[in-house]
Amino acid sequence: MNKKPSELYQKAEDELNHAQKELYRPSKDVVSYSACVFSRKALTDFLQALSLLYAEKNNADLGDMKTIEDWIRFSREYNDDLKNVDFTSLNCKCNEILDDDREQIIYCTSVDKVHHCSKLAEQVRSILVKEFPDAL
Q1: Within 13 Å and on the Cβ side, how many CA atoms surround 72?
Q2: Which of 40, 53, 126, 130 is most buried (most C-beta within 10 Å)?
Q3: What single string gives the DSSP state of each residue in 7-18?
Q4: What confidence category does residue 115 fall into, taking pLDDT thresholds of 50, 70 and 90?
């Protein structure tokens, strides 16, 4: 991976803002596809930034991580707060995250599920900011 944690963080912030703007609309007007994709990308980028920073801090190898589940598993090795975040209802956790052009198009249509994914991204963001405020 060639991305820097600070770049991933900023990108994730922008993506989360897009998702939240969509989710703040009345539920009948929410475009769930848009909110889902932006929430998922934000969550992935926050998790990747967190993993990169833990790998650097602990001189650990990230190996060949490609899924949200991989990033969660790796970061949980270094952070007890992340162990308390409930990712069980995350529907896209096993999808391979490649690049924007080749990412699998799988999304939730339920506004509640998309909102949950947005909240997960917020939780990971707050852990990232708490653990590595100077790196962002």
Answers
A1: 19
A2: 40
A3: HHHHHHHHHHHH
A4: confident
